[in-house]
Specification:
By secondary structure, the protein is α+β, with helices and mostly antiparallel strands. Helices cover 37% and strands 16% of the residues.
Length: 174
């Protein structure tokens, strides 16, 4: 019997800029990440945790993608790792809507695909009676942000916003 759907996963907030480039898979390595993905996929019987589509029936790609869930406290700057979940390509991209916008601007994703993914996610949320929350008003300072992973805290890889901009500007140009 498949576990119950978890459409609320689609409401997962975007990762704050100070935490970009830092994730459990970066800290704990590829072997840990691969094991966590396999566990997440098996836990949902190879279906998307948010919409329930079976791997082979998923739109765009016949596989699942893994996504890290966090409890993000914007006021304190704590991003606490909760678990890894399995998602279809559409649900995973719905969560990363900002990334999709960038891909469309760079002509690496068709705007029709982005719109279809947004419709997919909105339909799931509507059926579950869920709405996207408003962005937080209160936010910790850049240097206060930490990833909390199994009780240990890790500082982000960017010293400040300027370093973040510099990194992504240079990444675009290479």
């Amino acid at each position: 019997m498949r576990p119950p759907l978890r459409p609320e996963i689609l409401l997962h907030p975007n990762i704050p800029k100070p935490m970009h480039g830092l994730a459990p898979r970066v800290v704990l390595g590829q072997k840990w990440w691969d094991a966590q993905r396999r566990i997440a996929y098996a836990k949902t019987e190879y279906c998307c945790a948010a919409c329930g589509v079976y791997t082979a029936e998923a739109k765009y790609f016949p596989w699942l993608e893994a996504h890290e869930l966090y409890n993000i406290n914007y006021a304190t700057g704590k991003m606490t790792f909760l678990e890894v979940v399995s998602l279809c390509h559409s649900c995973h991209n719905y969560i990363h809507d900002g990334r999709m916008q960038i891909l469309v601007l760079k002509c690496e994703m068709l705007s029709t695909k982005r719109k279809a993914i947004l419709r997919h996610g909105n339909k799931i949320l509507k059926a579950a009676g869920l709405k996207k929350p408003r962005p937080p008003i209160e936010c910790a300072n850049w240097d206060e942000w930490r990833l909390v992973l199994y009780g240990r805290e890790y500082k982000g890889k960017f010293e400040n916003y300027e370093a973040w901009v510099d990194y992504y500007d240079n990444k675009e140009n290479t």
